[in-house]
Amino acid sequence: MAKMDRVPLVVGTMCTVVTAWTLCSPATADGAYREGVFGAIAASPASDAERLAVVDLARYLAQVSGGVPEALSLEEWQKHPRPAVLCGTPVDSDLIRSVMPQGASLGDEGYCLANAAIDGTRVAVAAGATSRGAVNAVYGLLRELGFAFYLGSEDIPDALPVRLPRSPVVRQPGLRIRGVLPWYNFMNSPTTWDPIDHRAFVDQLIRMGANFVGFHTYDSEPFAAYEEDGEMKWGGRLLNTNTGSWGTAAVPVDEFAGGTDRCFGRDGFGAETTFLGVSPRDAILREQAVMRDALDYAHRRGLHTCIGFEMNGDPTLPQFREAFCKRLEWVLQVYPSVDFVWLWQSETQGAQGFTTQYNTHILPYGLGPSSALPWYGAEWRADFARIVERTRGERPFFQDSAAGKRARAAEGARLELFASLALRVVSRHERAPRLVISGWGCIQDGVYITRPGGGVLGPSSRPIGR
């Protein structure tokens, strides 16, 4: 195996290296690089995701060889063949179809790599049956050459071989959904990220073979707040280390331990937006713009994108119904590239249910005297029996009592009513994202689903759970 160097990830976005695939200059390095197939890349990208992956391929090959590979289209390569890497899909190119291994079953995201010869010209093929597969083929090829990708670092080989070390290589992902849920709130999280950090994170996910990124937002955070009467409702601006958060105290940078204060250029650590002297409204709108850019870029790079908020309050009361619908409409308008909207329970709500009095973990919204949820819960209780009638769960949140069962039945009804509202909202949009309903409740397998035959989650939606 070739020697590899572990290098820290340099924060930046590879799409700024070059702005178009055809701007790359020919390679100038000697040796195996010049004589092998990696001195040129022939591709006719059919999507932004493919184009950006091919640019990435050129950059990584150049990082090792010292010379930028020659860039040309597949059509140009056919007119003037030379040793090269051929990238793409058989749908978009007869040339790719002619050199793909026969009988390879790739699916939507699988890929094949192979050494081949076309009229005596040596090539390496990196291809998928679809655009997503073609992107995965690029990074599969780099891994075969000795590169490795992690969120915080990369392994880079010392040299390139003259051709693929193994051929053919046919792979499919082991998991259909492969991704991450970066969690806002603490200072070791996206709370402190700027646009360049979001993009660098997305780039690494793609290189690692992920296909999904989703974000949750609390009611105190900016990303699902909506504007009304000149103010932002159901949300607040992000915080930095100059403000206490989640049980922590404000800590000046010059008090950071171990001399780490020298790593910071200002008296505080956080996202740039948190240091702006603007109104809460303007700060929240700017932070939503950062999230929109992050989701747009992730979508362009080929990730399934998702953002969501918690279904808080009582949907039988008009103030909560109206706020929920306004939030969802705002999310759909502000994040047009999102593929999924994720609707969450609050933490421990699954175990505690919706009740008048909570245990240890006190939730902000409970059952009031004018609520109709107890009646819905009683009517639909049998449909939620799997959760309601359980006899075990995480104590002290879970209560195996008549009151606990009534609370869990009311919670099932509450989620169904919110899901019905969500479907009503998204049905008004021509290209609406799919809905994901997520439980959060400290019960093993404790995810609520809608009543059998209730028709709440339509064919364009998908529940998480059983």
Radius of gyration: 26 Å
Q: What's the β-strand tally?
A: 16
Taking the sheet with the most strands, its summary is: 6 strands, mixed
Query: What portion of the residues fall into strands of 2 or more residues?
Result: 15-25%
- Mean pLDDT, nearest integer? 87
Written overview of the protein:
The chain has about 475 residues and is an alpha/beta fold. The chain has helices at about 30-35, 50-65, 75-80, 95-100, 130-145, 195-210, 280-300, 320-335, 350, 375-380, 385-390, 400-425, and strands at about 5-10, 40-45, 70, 85-90, 110-120, 120-130, 150, 155, 170, 180, 210-215, 225-230, 230-235, 305-310, 340-345, 435-440. The strands form 4 sheets. Strands 3-2-4-6-5-9 form a 6-stranded mixed β-sheet. A 5-stranded parallel β-sheet has the order 10-11-14-15-16. β10, α6 and β11 (about 210-215) form a beta-alpha-beta unit. The longest helix has 25 residues, at about 400-425. The chain is globular, with a radius of gyration of 26 Å. Mean pLDDT is about 85; it is low at about 10-35 and about 445-465.
Topology readout:
Blueprint: E1 4-8, H1 32-35, E2 40-43, H2 48-65, E3 70-72, H3 74-79, E4 84-88, H4 94-99, E5 111-118, E6 121-128, H5 131-144, E7 148-149, E8 153-157, E9 169-171, E10 179-180, H6 195-208, E11 212-217, E12 226-228, E13 231-233, H7 280-301, E14 304-310, H8 318-334, E15 340-344, H9 349-352, H10 373-380, H11 385-388, H12 402-426, E16 434-438
Parallel strand pairs: 2-3, 2-4, 4-6, 10-11, 11-14, 14-15, 15-16
Antiparallel strand pairs: 1-8, 5-6, 5-9, 7-8, 12-13
Helix pairs in contact: 2-5, 6-7, 8-12, 10-12
